[in-house]
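Side project, low priority. Logging it here so it doesn't get lost.
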Amino acid sequence: MRANRAAAVKLIFSLMLGMAVLFAADVNAQTRKKTGATITGTVLDSSGKPVANASVTCETSSGMKPRAVHTDKNGKFFITGLKQESYDLRASRNGAYSDWERNIPLRKSQTKDVTLQLLNGNTATSVVPATKKH
């Protein structure tokens, strides 16, 4: 009797484990479908160094509402959930701007990597000197 109960517990555990694995695979597939295409990249200053906290603006070439993300401490950015379309990107930080990177075509679930380089202006954090009282 005890052996049958142990066998039944093992069978139930195996079935539950199998269902969990199947469910996890299905959730992963659904997540990929919902996330769409991705643009990743790096923002560099005019000397080629990564720029932290730069703003990256993304819009469709057909004029969708712009979307902005910020770079991490290594100058990297990630824009996810994009539809199959062409996109325009531009980076900025403290008065410095990159050229527009235009018509970046994305297919469904595709990832493209883009490098944006700031052209002019100050990319370092500015410190404004205190004014002297007269």
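Brief comment: Helices lie at 2-35.
Revisit when time allows.
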